[in-house]
Every structure is written in structure tokens, then in C-alpha cells.
Protein 1
Amino acid sequence: MYPPRSQKNEGRKKARKRKIGKAWIITNLVLLLMIVGLFGYYYIFEHRESSSLVENAGLLQQENKAKTDSAGGGQSSSPIRENVTAVSNEQLDNNPNGDEQAADDKTEHPSDTTKDTARPPATTSDTNVAEGNSSESGESSENAGQSPDRSSNKDVSNSGNSTDPNESEQGKNVASDGTASQTVTLHFVGDVQFSGKVEQRLEKNGFDFPYQYLGNLFRKDDLTIANLETPVTTGGVGALNKTYVYKSSPKALTALAAAGIDAVNLANNHILDQGTAGLLDTLKYLKENDIAYTGAGRNAKEAYAPHYLERKGFKIALLGATRVMPEAHWNAGTKQPGVAGAYDSTAIVKSIREARKQADLVIVIAHWGKERVTVLEPHQTELSHAFIDAGADLVIGGHPHVLQGMEQYKGKWIAYSTGNFIFSKSTVPATWDTAIFQATCTRAGACSMKLTPYRAELGQPVPMKDAEASKILQGVAAMSPANVSVGADGTVTAR
């Protein structure tokens, strides 16, 4: 006897439900495994990335403690020639505060009575310092918040003859075989700030005063980069633990952009002088003036990210990092505005490697070394070599407020310190000497270097006479390894 049709239908329904149930169980198990795998990957990635910024904070504390415990210790070894020493003790005695730049700015902030390095930086309680270059920042993309490419403002036609004696041939270089090779011409200058007595002079003479002797040099090249050693803000709260606290007017950036300076490094020991609010204002004003920035940002991802610029078909990557920070909490974190630290180089080296995959030319601006000292600190050589090993084509340094030597490593140039450019004037003559560093680079990343000496007067770089300029060029050569020479025209070569 056959079962009723209703019973057959019921059996089919039960079988279908069992199949659907099994499918749901399998689907849920697969999803669960995927979620566990993603969490595991994220944990490993986050742990690895965060360790570099934890190390940054730890090394920063150790170094500043060592400075406090052994102030005035002996000079470190370096690849520069043995007959070059630090700025003399007699010169340093002219400014007993030593560590910072401007003796004549000593009274700008009378409430600030402690030197930058007088105490080790406090370890921040904000765990964002240790959260690294995380992709979970949630608000920053590769160039988030940074200004657009201002290449349209540059005169890149290279047509016509310039009357500016500082200008060099742009665009095309003729090779020894008579063929033309496409190049870009870049200029690098040292520290700029528009605070205190500098600001007083600019208010009197105009904010274009610093650039009166430069002509069209920066407007005619392909890219000009400076180290912005000041927050630009009308607000902010001045740091209480520093002798020298800077704060510059937004009017200064309008003139800076008009002079042809396209990009600035923010990874330094003054950009947070007016706190987080001052840094965020600086980013805003830079964007309003179409000035690109690198080395700091609203979070770690933005601070460490390469900033890409297009010039004459070249894709150029700019990165900035600092080995000088007054406090550990200046490190950018996942949700913490700040700078790209280099006490541990893991994060910045990773960013350089990423830039190498994307760009024709990779440039790193580093803040490092010891103020008013021409002898290199060991970390300057170690970091510069690590940056080049990771893919940098050019490394440009600053912070010492004096010129230092140059080195060619694996065919790539390192300028260890560019000195001051637009700054207050101290009582130490070595801080008055500066130069414009010109790099002419091919698409393959091969760069030639040339220096044009200037004297850094109060708020204005002034060209040097031939004898003075020759002395500066000879000094840079003497501070460089023995295989580096500097010609009478400023051309730097390595044997």
C-alpha cells in the first residue's frame, strides 16, 4: 500500500530543511573562520606596527636621560674628516642656553625657563603614541589633509633667458654623448621660522622681505622644499617646558608660497610648540596656500605617509622624519596628531619602501643631529644609510643650525645639515652660514648636487661675496668624507 501524498510531501519538506540547515551551519562555520583569521591577521599586523612607535618613545626617553646625565660628553665618531670639530666652546659660551638657536630671541617667551633637553620626555599615558602606522585610523588616506599639487604655479616651460645669476639650466641636461636626458631641478633650504624678532622685522618690511635676494630662483625650478620650524597659527597654547617656543603668522605662508616654495617638512622639534591645536592650524593654512607637507599629520598614517607630487612627468615622493622630540607624546598615533618619529626607524623605513614602489624619485627630509655642532652623531649616518637602503634617492638633513658635510652612499647623496635659512640671528657666527642645495635628478634617481652659499641674516638670506662663498664651500668639503670635493662653482662630486 502506497503512503498518502501528504506524507510524501512532508518527507520532502523535512529533507529540504535538513539540507538548508546543513548549508547554514557550513556557511556560518566558514564565516566564523574568516572572522577569526581576520582578527588574527589584524592583531599580528597591529602588534608589529605599534612596536616601532613604542620603541620610538622608549628610545626618546633613554636618549634624553643620557643627555641629562652626561651633558657635555665627548664627540661621537663620524665619517667626516678628523680635523673638523664642533663649534668652539668659546662661541657656545656666548649663549649659555646652548641647545637652541637664537640668543637674541631668549626673552621672546619669558615664562619659558627650561631648556628643550632639560628633562627627559614624559611617557604619554595615551596609548595612541604606540599605535603606529595603522590602517585602522579611519580618517586618513595616503595624502589626506595635505595640499594639492601646486605644479601649475611653477614655470616649467623653461623658455626664455633668465637674468637671475642664481638660476641654473632647467629641464634638459645634455649628456656626454650629445643626447638629451630629461631631468627635474630641485632646491632645498634649511630651517625657516617667522616668530619673535623675525616677525617684528617682517611686519616692518613686509612678509616678502626674506625673498628679496632670491629673484625667480624658486619659481623657475621644478620643486623647492624647506623645513618649517614653527607652527603657523593665531591660537594654540605655548609649550611650558621649552626655552624657545615659536608661533608664526599665517601671513608668512602666503609670502612663502608666492616665493616659489612648494613643500615643507614638519617633522621637527618645534611644530608642536603651540600644541595640537597649533599643528592642526598649520595643516589648514598650508592647505589654503597650496603648500604640500610631510612628516606630521592628524594621525600616524598621515604623518608617515609619502606625499606624492608630479613634475614634468616625474612622480616624486616626499617623506619626513625626526630624531629630535622634546616629549614622547609628540609622536603621532592612530588618533593622535603629531610627527613621524625616527628614534626607531621601522615605520619610516616601511613608508620609504612603499614610496619606492610608486615613485620615480624618493626624497627623505630628516631632522637629527646636535645643535651648533658640525660633527655628525652616529644616528645621522645610521639613519641616512638605512633610508637609502630602503629606496631613498636623496636624503636632506637639518636641525643643527649649522652646515655639515655631505656624503655619497651607494651613489645617492646625503646632505647632513642645511643650516638656517629664514631665522633669528644668534651670537654664534657658524649659524650665519647657509646655502641653497640644488639637486638635478634623472628619472632613474641619479642626482647631481650644487651649493650656492648665502648668509642667514635676521629673517633674510643674503648672497655672499666670492671670497666668503669660497670659504663656505671649502668648509663643507672639509666636513665631508675625503672622497667628496666641492668645486669653486659649488658643484659637489665624489670620487
Protein 2
Amino acid sequence: VLLTTVGLLLSTRNVFGRFDESYLEFENMSYLLGITVVVLDIQLILQMMRRDARDDSNGDEVGLQETISPNGRCGVIDDATVHVYGATYTAAATWWSLRTSMSCPSLIGDFDHILGPLSLSIFLFSITAPLLTLIHHYTDYQSKLVDRILKTIVGLARGGVTVDQLPRLSDLEVYRATSLFVIGVIACTYAPGTLTMTLRGQDWWSRVMELHPGQSWIESTTALFGVYATQASMVAHRAGKKGVATYAQIVPAFTLLCLALTIFPTISSVYWLGDQISLVEFYGE
């Protein structure tokens, strides 16, 4: 919730073109919160995978059943899978934002050859998982290949269990999968830059910032927008699980929140930084 709140404040500054030192402070706060979220999610994922963990008092299994719904769902909508999705997306997008930020420590660049390909793989997963989930639904669950892939994804997210059958999606779950697909599309806009950074390194990025002074603002900001949207999705997911409101109420509100966190401020950023940025040409410079 705190990360989403910071996201709204930063998005507001984009709308009004307030790119200054205080903007960097909001970015740095987002990085700290993003890393914290990732650490907590990793802890949860590891807990999910501790299938042999036992409660000392009664011998019942703990971990997966305590924090993740035991009711498996289809593909990316599955409770365990969506937590893995949120954690990995947040980690990759936070890295890309920090890597292109004016606040980036020089040490971070030394790991481009490792973090670049890893993040690129995560960005591709973030669109593939919801896409396959939707394909499975709209093809009436007839594809054995897609079914096998989704069972593998859900099984791995749940600690390597064997998934015998995937339940059909409800209409609301289709909407949620579509929302995650849109978030995955946003992630794919980071992929060309991630690939170029991996192949060409800091010399390329230094040249880009010299030719396009606003490029650092736009790249780091749009990556954070992806983080905000993903974590807003996770907040909505957890609120629905806790019964704070029904998913039918939460999902439309989440959609409006994502528009406020991503689309509007991105358009505003392009407007304010228009003559200082490059949308495509900078990849080849």
C-alpha cells in the first residue's frame, strides 16, 4: 500500500512536469520499498516451497496452507503463481528503473551481463503467463500443450507439486488475467532497452544521456510505473482474499488506479520531456 501511495505522488509530479531533485527522492524511496516488497515475496515463495515444514504442536503442514490458498486455479490466476509473478516483475522492473536512473550507483552496471538477461526473461514471462492463460480459456481448454505448460507453471510456483487438473476461469478471473496481460505488455516495452544495455553496456547509456538529457527520466519513470501497477494488482489480490471487498468491486477500482499510475503520467512525461527524449532512435546510438 505504501509503495502504491508513493507511486501516486510520483505520478502526480509527472502530470505536472516536476522533474527535479525531490523527484529523485521519490524514485529512491520507490526503490527501497520495491526491494523490500521483493524480499518479503521471496520469503513467502520460499515458505511455499518448504513442503516438508511442520507445525511442532500438531504436525500439520505449514507454509503453503497458511499463506497461499490451497485451491489451485488456472495459470497466472493461481494464488501461488500470481505471487511469483508479482515478485519477479517487481524485481526486474525495479532493477531496470534503477539502472537507468540518475541515482544509479556505478556498481550496478557491473552486473548488466547477469541482471540484464535475467530481467529480460522475467519480462517475457510476465506477458507469456497471462497470454497462455487467456489462450487456454478462449480455446475452450482444448490445447494439450498449453494445458501442460500452465500445469508446469502452477506446479513450480507451488513448490514442485504435480497439478492434475486446471479449473476453468470465471468471467472475473478472465478480466484479472487480461489485466495482468496488459501489465506484461508494459513490461515488454522495457525489453529492447534491457537487451541493448546487456549487449552495449554503460558506454551506450552514457552516450544516450548525452544526446537525450531527458531519457533517464522517461526510462526510470516508466519502469517504476510498471512496478506500481503490479503492486496495485497485488494489493487488490490480497484485499479480495481478505474479504475487504468482492473482486467484482475491486477489479474495476484497480483498473482506474492503474490508469492513474501508468497511462496518464506516461503521456504527461512524453509531453513535458518531448524535445529531450528519443522513443526509438536511441537504441541504435
Protein 3
Amino acid sequence: MPDRHSGAARALLLVALLSACGGGDKPSAEDSSAAADSAASAAAAAPTPEAPAAAPANDASAPLTVADIDRWQKGMAAELKAVQDAGAQLKAAKTGNDTLTAMMGANETATRAAGASAAGLDESRYGFIASELSALTMVLAPVEADFEAGKMPAAMVQSMQQERDRQAAQVTPKYPPDVVEALKPRAAELRKQQMTLVGWRVKAAGAA
């Protein structure tokens, strides 16, 4: 099969030769036009190099969505169950190896798979939304979600809340506005759920 590039070259050469002839009949307009058309067709038919494919987006760190709030809540519930199971194994441990295995099973890395599965996400994405929503919830939840405010002086509670509000003003602009607005009325509930999970991790690790 003739090479497309060589066909284009031959057609262009024909035009040049006809134009350069000093004697004899000059090429007709039809001949020149046909040769030019042939060259253009051959050049158009030649394959063009493809542009390099764009690098795939990193879905794990894609911006948060409102739906991620429910996913995180489901994930925390599953992680709590995994931590409680590890705590039961710790109580039933008969050897040092059993104890170590149970304690390791309660840490965040070990329970992430359970949380991701319940959330319907891969572990990388679940780890990302858990980290981001945890930080956001901490500044949106009232102080009472972390401490027994009734046992502290009112002035102290007020001062702590003012500081938290200041942090929220700095942090929230970094997140999608719809996520922030959806999280505000649920922040206290989710913060308490998060603190419960942390407390059970401490117990399962044998530190409490």
C-alpha cells in the first residue's frame, strides 16, 4: 500500500516541477489545481499525533459533598462496633499475643476498613472525609459537645465558645458552603459520636 506521506510529497514535487519548467508548455490551471488538491488530500489523510491523556483526578481528595456527612456517620458507627469487638477480645485475651492483637485491632488504621465498607467508599476516600469532617465538626459543635459545661464556671464556658467561634470563622471558608450549612445543625450530634468512638478506642487499648 503506498505511503500517505510519500504520496503527498510526490504531489507537491509535481507542482514544483511544473512551475519550474523554463521551456515547453506551461502547466494548465487544471493540472496545477489537481496536483495541489492531491497534496492537500494526502496531507489531511496522514495520521496526526494524539495529545497525551490528561492525568486522572485524585478522587480520594475530591471536595466534600453533603452526602459525605451521612457516609461518615455510618462509617463511625461501623468503626465503633469494630472497636467494641476488639475490646471484648482484649478482655478474653489469654496470652500476650492475644492482648497485643486486640489492642492493635482497636486503632484507627485497623478499623478504617470497616468504616469505609459501611460508608460505601474505598479506604482512601473514607479516610479523607473522616479527617476533613472531623476537623470541621470540632469547630462547629458547641463546647458542651466536648465538655460537661455544667461543671465549669460560666465565664470559662463563654470564653471557650468564643475561641471556638473564632476558629470556625477561619476554618469554614475552606469548605464547600453547602457542606458547612448542612453540618451546622448536626455538628453537636456528630461530635458526640466521634468522642464516643475515641473513648472506646482508649478503653479497648487497655488505657482506661
